[in-house]
Amino acid sequence: MLQPTSHGAVTDSVRPPEFSRAEHARVLATTAAGSVVVGYAAVAALLALVSSTAAHASFSTTGVLAAAAPGWLVAHHIPVRFDGGQLGVLPLLPTALVMLLVSRAAAGAADRLGLFEPLQARSVVFTISGAHAVVGGLIAFLMGEAGPVRATPAVAFFGCAAVSGVAAVAGVAQRCGLVEVLFDRVDPVARRGLRAGALALFALAAAGALLLAVGLATSWPTTSALFDQGGGTVGSGLGIWLLCLGYLPNAVVGAMSLTTGAGFSLGAVMVSPTAFSGGPVPAIPLLAALPEQQLGLLPAVFALPGAIGVLVGLALRTAAKSPATRVRAVLVAAMTAGVGMLVLAAVAGGNLGSGAFTPVTVPAGLAAVLTLAWIGLPGALVAWLAGPRPAAPPAPVQPPVVVAAEADEDDEDDEDDEVEYEEDAEELEEVAEEEEDDFDEPDGEPDREPAAPEDDEARDDPPLADKPD
Questions:
Q1: I need a labelling partner for 354 at 20 to 30 A (CA). Which of 25, 222, 313, 457 fits?
Q2: What is the span of the domain harbouring residue 102?
């Protein structure tokens, strides 16, 4: 016999897989350990490639694995110290690659465990960030204070936890509904402002990259000469190329700050659209894009953030019918781009040893404020003027003729009723007066009682005094 089936019930094919606590913990532990091991192996493989191709470098597996420990911390954006000072200007490209690796690992764990609720993402995020924090603090502790490269254990612990935690949240945000929860808490106008702000930040980064490419192209002879100074071998050229590639995002952030007007400084060298101060710079081909003197056309870079602000205003001109609401969307976009610029500028600079090239400064606060102004002011003006205008209030509708005629008829009926009432009142008054006249005496004599009738005999009889005895 066929077993009956219940229509509309949730089948096992659409339910998320159910795991026991042991299996759940095993998946999380495997994911966290795998992200740490894969990242460490990637750093070790890169160092092995550089040392194997260098001309005078000695290659050993133990030495590469030992050198990968501080490299793993640098990839997590943890400052390291050495006898010559502190390396605080850390390359952003390895940090971005590590965050991408952790994000993919967190997303894979969420898929394997069938997580789909926001609160379920806590286990993945806490496990991955905790594993990276413990490994980072342990590496900094084992490096000690007497080694050639040192790091602070507390800074390594919390720094690794922060970097890996942000990456893990980004990995599970879409799968566990964190993005929907965030967007559900804001109105559609602010949602469009957030998207426009993210696009504005991306456009500002593209403008900085374009400015950097123009600088490298105009100074290509200097760039080529700096590559040749490295020794001319494959290993040295590869090392310089990897160094420039790792610091390429830092240079783009510096160019972004330059386009906004905040500029940047490298030791005694200070570059901005309106001011310039020369000095020595490291012999790195990437720095050949720096101008050697104040350029008259450098203030023209202000057209880039201004154009981005105009584009933001055009993109948000249809965000709402009210001009004030459109301006609010532009302000949300400007604040989003400003906060993004603040974070990027804060992590792009730092100390560079103890020589003449330190510190490398990208003024984060000034760059963020200028970014907000470049996006907000032209964007608000364009959104206010180019958007739809609110419709004028409709003219008052005149009452139809039929209604007016009915009203006139009602007024005439009321007047007729009043006339009839007055005529009735006059008739009643006349009737009352006639009745009063019937009761009154003529000629105005006073009213008296009628005399009683007398007998004939009484009339004929004289008075008693006149009668004979």
A1: 222
A2: 18-185
CA distance 210 to 206: 6
DSSP conformation class of 269: E
**Sheet order of strands, 276-277 included:** 276-277, 269-271, 264-266, 360-361
Phi, psi of 383 (to 5 degrees): -65, -35
pLDDT, one tens digit per residue, over 229-260 is 765 667 677 888 888 899 999 999 999 999 99
Q: What is the pLDDT of residue 52?
A: 74
Residue of 206, 220, 208, 209 lying closest to 288 (CA atoms): 220
Identify whether 144 is part of a domain.
yes
86: helix, coil or strand?
strand
147 with 97, same domain? yes
Contact 124, 30 (CB under 8 A): no
The DSSP 8-state label assigned to residue 393 in this structure reads P
Q: Which residue has the higher pLDDT, 45 or 436?
A: 45
Tell me the residue ranges of DSSP E strands in 323-405. Answer: 360-361
Instruction: Pick the last residue of a domain from 185, 215, 236.
Output: 185
Nearest to 347 by CA among 257, 451, 234: 257
Residue 32: CB atoms within 10 Å: 26
Nearest to 130 by CA among 85, 170, 173, 162: 162
Asked whether 379 and 338 are in contact (CB, 8 A), the reply is no
User: Is 190 found in the same domain as 177?
Assistant: no
Overall number of domains in the chain = 2
Please name the residue ranges forming H helices in 185-302: 188-218, 220-228, 234-246, 248-260
Among 390, 420, 445, the domain boundary falls at 390
Domain contains 100: yes
SS3 116: coil
Output the pLDDT for position 12.
Answer: 39
H or E segment and range at residue 104: helix 92-113
Closest by CA to 248, choosing from 94, 397, 429, 47, is 94
- State the pLDDT confidence band at 88, using cuts at 50, 70 and 90: confident
Dist CA 159 CA 32 (whole Å): 16
